[in-house]
Design a protein that fits this description.
InterPro entries: AB_hydrolase_fold (IPR029058). By secondary structure, the protein is an alpha/beta fold. The protein is about 40% helix and about 20% strand. The protein has ten helices and nine strands.
Length: about 350
């Protein structure tokens, strides 16, 4: 299937903000909004921007501008500033070493499943590494302190965003745009649509663990992927399993805020691949009957019913709203879930 550019429509791009380039650990990094920081803003939040597959970091500049403009229009920006950071995902842009590794099975890449997971997992690790060092480059005189980290990722970047919010305790807010928390389901769906023999020979029964999704990749998925790591096959956990999972959920997601934005007509990353895990989370977060509803987790699950594999105009509004609300400590939910179709 073709891979559309989710950011192809730039007709409503905002006025650009300032940008400065840094090379951090050999990674070309762009920081947006430094010049727009109020002199009185001694605390700074960082919005990490992770781009889609087959794209480059510069495509995220309008997203940085939209969020920074919205936040700087609020009085709270005088005490707490916002900057945004983008960098090329592994094997993309300035970091590309093998163009075929970014392609799909249908485009002739036999290791599509391994390549895509390792690339966006590596990008999540890069984000954590860059968090370690960013302040020493951007604020070397320690005149400002970075006190909060948010991440927004689209498509490939959305898959990576799920790993960022799950595995880095410093990242407390995530906006996942057309990304999926269940990589095995996503790849099985794509293998079926691609008519791989490892799928068609058994209607998918032997796909996981096959040459198209090797056991080594299954093991890595189980370690890092949200659904495989947290849930496995326990969509209906027993009471004993819940006792084991509660402290793990608290450690990994306690107090964190997540916005999922999906396209109702998305064929590349279908909402149906994310739904079982999201429903599991929403059930656990139910204010009346949820078994981990006391963990301070916010989950907003919003589907733009008319959108395909794209960052639609409606999604952009929701993302900017969610980011500013989290910076301000506001929001429609203090803890719990919100499900909406727009």
């Amino acid at each position: 299937m073709a891979t559309p550019n989710p950011l192809a429509d730039n007709s409503s791009d905002p006025t650009p903000v300032s940008s400065k380039s840094y090379t951090i650990a050999g990674v070309h990094t762009t920081v947006y909004g430094i010049d727009e920081l109020a002199s009185s803003a001694k605390e700074v939040a960082v919005l990490w921007l992770l781009h889609p597959r087959l794209q480059v970091q510069s495509i995220m500049a309008p997203i940085a501008a939209a969020s920074i403009h919205d936040w700087n229009g609020r009085s709270a920006s005088r005490s707490k500033g916002l900057i945004a950071v983008s960098f090329d995902q592994r094997n993309h842009g300035t970091r590309e070493v093998n163009a075929l590794a970014n392609e799909s099975w249908k485009k002739g890449n036999p290791t599509h499943a391994q390549d895509m997971f390792s690339i966006f997992h590596g990008t999540a690790q890069d984000t954590s590494m860059l968090i370690d060092f960013l302040s020493s480059y951007v604020f070397p005189d320690s005149s400002r302190s970075i006190t909060k980290h948010l991440v927004l990722g689209i498509s490939l970047g959305g898959h990576s965003t799920w790993q960022c919010i799950l595995h880095d305790p410093r990242i407390t807010t995530a906006v996942v745009v057309i990304g999926c928390p269940d990589y095995k389901f996503l790849m099985a769906d794509r293998a079926k649509k691609s008519k791989l023999s490892t799928w068609t020979s058994s209607e998918g029964k032997v796909f996981l663990g096959s040459t198209d999704y090797p056991q080594g990749l299954c093991d890595a998925t189980d370690r890092w992927d949200p659904k495989s790591f947290l849930v496995g096959d326990k969509l209906q956990p027993t009471d004993d399993q819940k006792k084991t999972l509660r402290p793990l959920i608290k450690e990994k997601l306690g107090g964190k805020h997540i916005l999922c934005l999906s396209g109702g007509k998305d064929k590349l990353v279908p909402y149906t691949c994310s739904a079982p895990f999201l429903d599991w989370m929403k059930s656990g977060l139910d204010k009346k009957d949820g078994w981990f509803s006391d963990q301070g987790i916010v989950l907003e699950d919003i589907v733009d019913e008319t959108a395909g594999h794209e960052y639609s105009a409606k999604m952009k509004v929701e993302a900017v709203r969610f980011i500013s609300e989290n910076l301000a400590g506001e929001g429609s939910l203090k803890a719990g879930t919100r499900t909406s179709k727009i």
